[in-house]
Specification:
Layout lengths: L7 E4 L3 E4 L9 H4 L6 H16 L2 H16 L14 H12 L30 H15 L5 H15 L27 H6 L37 H14 L4 H11 L4 E2 L28 E2 L10 H6 L6 E5 L5 E5 L9 H4 L6 H10 L1 H17 L36 H13 L2 H14 L30 H14 L5 H15 L6 E3 L23 H12 L3 H6 L13 H8 L6 H4 L4 H12 L1 H17 L7
Antiparallel strand pairs: 1-2, 1-7, 3-4, 5-6
Helix pairs in contact: 3-5, 3-6, 4-6, 5-6, 9-12, 9-13, 12-13, 14-16, 14-17, 15-16, 15-17, 16-17, 20-22, 22-23
Bound molecules: heme B/C (HEB).
Heme B/C binds next to helix 4, helix 9 and strand 3.
């Protein structure tokens, strides 16, 4: 297996032991939990799948050949435009990945949910069912060894490569969800409305962050221009910039992706049976196929990688003119020149800050190739988390968007943590109030973890830096860190990240916890850049919804999430007293804490009030889960 990274384990009962490299994140008290966590189930499934795959690299290469063959094998049920499905497959991969949003890490192609409702029925995903149908025989051939998520992204990559386009690499290892449920919160439905209200007619085109698109059910913006600014390229530029930033892209990446992506394929919106428009149109196939209602291709060579798009964009001789297309949609067509078109969102690439970037790509295809392949890799891999989660022989070096950590120093595995633990114990014994400080420090440090895109967590100890250190919830961090300074001075080789987790565990044990397992091997980030977008999500319209969402994003069960509210305080005791007092109304509580009395959580609170042992068990499970959640070290 390629899971790794815990050469040294220590638990209260069994003491320290060197472990088989590969075992820690999956072993000990943690994996034996009755409640197997979603995240780690996924990792188990991953290991099994790659295990029976044999050589994963060989596997991907064979799949790629099958995809290449399928691209030019036109099927009657959905004939290939220009004899090649490249455009269709690139659109499939982009729409599968483009649901990713930086606000909470949800969306993306990991999980392969584009083959289910709600994603498959989003208006923007029209006719992508045919793209999936074309890939179906390949999926059948490899069965459970190949995930839909990997197949879809590979199909996009092969389409790009086989038509001469640039590819940086492939991060394999997506695991399919059994249904589309994890996309429900992306909308449109009540669940989405509840967390992120935006759906009514007068909000169309104005849905705001944390939502990904401005219109629910879109991957991107309205192609004919921003809400209330139809046909206006300058306004569209702002719209595109806003939406692509919510996916995590900067201007260069956005221009490279949109203009690079539209090197291929065409829009589908012929007028078959006047009066035209979506209502009247014949939803045919081949040259009659109707998808978006816009019509035409961007270049005269739509099955080849070129920078023709950018050349055309600035070609004054073409005299681009805003007109209604065959189905009544607003698009730009050349007054003179070949049979090509531009969407309003394409003309936007010649506006504002995008203009200089587009001019560069017109003049320098090598610059476009460099930027496109990096942006495409970012697009298709952002939801995969750190580079250490990627499988296969085409995995490129870690990229900035993966927030790489330094390597674990050579020899780290032979550090003896027993004296380190003893030194921490001295800090705890000096003053019981330190228990709460150290437990909280570890909790806050690990609590940024997102099971949605595998970002955040205790590894890296980014809580030592701005911006994370300055977050309101992290008040007191500097003081807690100062408690560990003497330990760090005595054991300079131990990372802060390990020290923080070990100290938190020691504190919890001093407070009455018992079955925690420490897995060493964390390293320290060199700055706080990796905390970007991980700050507490404060947009939930109520405390109850916020707590529920926070549990989901962290991959915690409701029981685990509730248990973690009872961190030891100034008294240095871990017990169900917090819940007893909360229920009895004794003491002062935050609005968030009081929300635990809502029917959604009150039975869990009751259970903890009745049974302290049950509370401790659940707390320890949650603690172990969170402290190890971000360990993907290896292979
Ligand atoms: Fe795109 C297509 C829009 C971006 C790639 N697009 C398309 C269409 C439209 C659009 C409307 C048509 C559809 C049909 O079929 O009808 N886009 C758009 C927008 C945006 C975009 C608005 C934002 C601005 N794309 C994009 C990107 C990419 C792309 C980013 C990649 C990278 N597309 C594409 C392709 C195509 C399209 C490839 C073609 C498809 C076919 O051919 O089928």
């Amino acid at each position: 297996g390629s899971q790794a990274g815990c050469p040294y384990m220590m638990s209260k009962e069994s003491g320290p032991h060197q472990t088989h490299r590969a075992s820690c994140p999956m072993s000990g008290a943690f994996v034996d939990q009755e409640q197997a966590h979603q995240l780690h189930n996924r990792r188990l499934a991953h290991d099994e799948r790659v295990g029976d795959w044999g050589e994963p690299d060989e596997g991907y290469a064979v799949v790629k050949q099958d995809i290449a063959d399928a691209l030019t094998d036109s099927k009657d049920y959905w004939p290939a435009d220009f004899g090649n499905y490249a455009g269709l497959m690139i659109r499939l991969a982009w729409h599968c990945a483009g649901s990713y949003r930086k606000s909470d890490g949800r969306g993306g192609c990991d999980g392969g949910r584009i083959r289910f409702s709600p994603e498959l029925t989003w208006p923007d995903n029209g006719n992508l069912n045919f793209a999936l149908q074309l890939l179906d025989p390949i999926k059948e051939k490899y069965g459970s060894k190949l995930s839909w998520g990997d197949l879809i992204i590979l199909a996009g990559n092969v389409a790009i490569e086989s038509t001469g386009g640039p590819i940086l690499g492939f991060c394999g290892g997506r695991i399919d969800d059994p249904n589309g449920d994890n996309s429900l919160i992306l909308g449109p439905n009540e669940m989405q409305e509840e967390l992120t209200p935006c759906a009514t007619i007068d909000q169309i085109g104005t849905c705001a962050y944390p939502l990904g698109p401005t219109v629910i059910g879109n991957i991107y913006v309205e192609p004919d221009g921003a809400h209330n600014f139809k046909g206006d390229a300058a306004e569209s530029q702002k719209d595109v910039a806003e939406v692509f930033s919510r996916m995590g892209f900067n201007d260069t990446e956005t221009v490279a992706l949109v203009g690079g992506g539209h090197a291929w394929g065409k829009s589908h919106g012929p007028c078959m049976s006047p009066p035209c428009g979506e209502e009247g149109a014949d939803l045919g196939i081949g040259i009659n196929a109707f998808t978006s209602g816009f019509d035409g291709k961007w270049t005269v060579r739509p099955t080849e990688w070129t920078n023709d798009y950018f050349v055309n964009l600035f070609d004054e001789g073409l005299n681009w003119t805003l007109k209604e297309g065959p189905s009544g949609k607003l698009q730009f067509f050349p007054e003179n020149g070949p049979d090509i078109m531009m969407l309003v969102t394409d003309m936007a690439l010649a506006e504002g800050d995008y203009r200089a970037i587009s001019e560069l790509y017109r003049d320098d295809i090598a610059a476009l190739e460099h930027d496109f392949k990096h942006a495409w890799y970012h697009l298709t891999s952002a939801d995969m988390g750190p580079a250490s989660r990627c499988y296969g022989s085409e995995v490129p070096p870690a990229q900035d968007f993966q927030y790489p950590l330094p390597d674990v120093p050579v020899g780290y595995g032979s550090i003896d943590f027993i004296p380190v633990r003893a030194s921490i114990q001295d800090v705890i014994d000096a003053d019981a109030v330190n228990i709460g400080h150290l437990a909280n420090l570890a909790y806050r440090s690990a609590n940024t973890f997102r099971a949605t895109d595998y970002r955040g967590g205790a590894n890296g100890a980014r809580i030592r830096f701005s911006p994370e250190m300055d977050w309101e919830v992290n008040a007191g961090t500097a003081d807690a860190l100062a408690l560990l300074e003497p330990v760090k001075a005595a054991y300079p080789d131990v990372s802060y990240a390990d020290l923080i987790v070990l100290a938190g565990q020691a504190a919890i044990e001093a407070a009455g916890g018992s079955s925690m397992t420490f897995c060493a091997g964390r390293v320290d980030a060199i700055d706080g850049s990796g905390s970007k977008n991980l700050d507490p999500r404060t947009y939930a319209p109520s405390e109850v919804i916020g707590i529920r969402d926070n549990n989901n994003v962290r991959g915690l069960t409701p029981e685990e999430g509730v248990a973690l509210f009872a961190m030891p305080g100034a008294d240095g005791v871990l017990s169900n007293a917090f819940f007893t007092n909360l229920k009895a109304g004794e003491g002062t509580f935050t609005a968030e804490e009081e929300a635990l009395l809502d029917p959604e959580f009150s039975s869990i609170v009751d259970m903890f009030v009745e049974d302290n042992a049950k509370f401790l068990e659940m707390f320890e499970s949650a603690w172990n889960h969170l402290m190890i959640a971000d360990r993907f070290d290896g292979p």
